[in-house]
């Protein structure tokens, strides 16, 4: 927060002591997609409300969408705790201290970062977000694999020139998880054809699983609020993997729908990737990084 700017969400909370969450797709008979996203913000809200020194700073009202209605939910904010940081001190904090605050908001233990020391630090933030979503939602393995497959499609399975920049940006990540980022054009086309066939098959069946869509919406919302926290502390983590690299609604839905009942998911993935060890190592190592202490 070195430029002393706040996102619109934090400003609304300061002024009105409430936040009306933007409309996202909500699924009937499912908890609000904000259930696990809002708590990420609470340490920041405690700092803001302690600085503001209004009389009633004990809670913030967040309006969640429930079916077609907005319902108020009060979130307690413990801003009287001596451990709550003073707002004025943030811009003087070291990078390590600001990173620790963001890491704590995403409930990532310090020890886990030591397990990621072979990965460039620009990718820690993304790993923390995906890990937080995966653990909070208590999802099966296929959902995490779906996110990684979407990332693989952006990193490896594109040949058009406009994606050369993305290839260079993610080269460190690719190199960390395999022997290199080269996939021969013939294999690339075959794998893309398989992915497209999975999507077409699900589309032709008119199969739409709202539960799968709901989990992707949860990921999008958690990602959005994680960005707000990172911005609040002056962006101590680099957000090197942007959402369009790993969030693809059609591929995510089709992949989970197609593979969720496979008896041997790993064998099915090996077949999907034509036993290409660059892709397989990439997927398995990211999976291990995220699930290391689960």
Quick description:
This protein has 294 residues and is mainly alpha-helical. It folds into 2 domains: 92 residues, no CATH class; 186 residues, no CATH class. The protein contains 14 helices and 3 strands.
Q: Which quaternary structure do these chains form?
A: single chain
The radius of gyration computed from the alpha-carbon positions, rounded to a whole number of angstroms, is: 21 Å
From the helix content, strand content and strand pairing, which structural class follows?
mainly alpha
What's the β-strand tally? 3
Mean pLDDT: 82
Helix fraction by DSSP (H/I, runs of at least 4): 55-70%
How much of the residues is beta strand, in percent?
5-15%
Whole-number tally of structural domains = 2
Write structural notes for this entry.
The structure is a single chain. With 294 residues, the protein is mainly alpha-helical. The protein folds into 2 domains: 92 residues, no CATH class; 186 residues, no CATH class. It is built from 14 helices and 3 strands. A 3-stranded mixed sheet has the order 1-2-3. A hairpin with a 2-residue loop joins strand 2 and strand 3. Helix 2 runs parallel beside helix 10, helix 5 crosses helix 14 and helix 6 crosses helix 14. The longest helix has 23 residues. The radius of gyration is 21 Å and the shape is globular. The two termini are 33 Å apart.
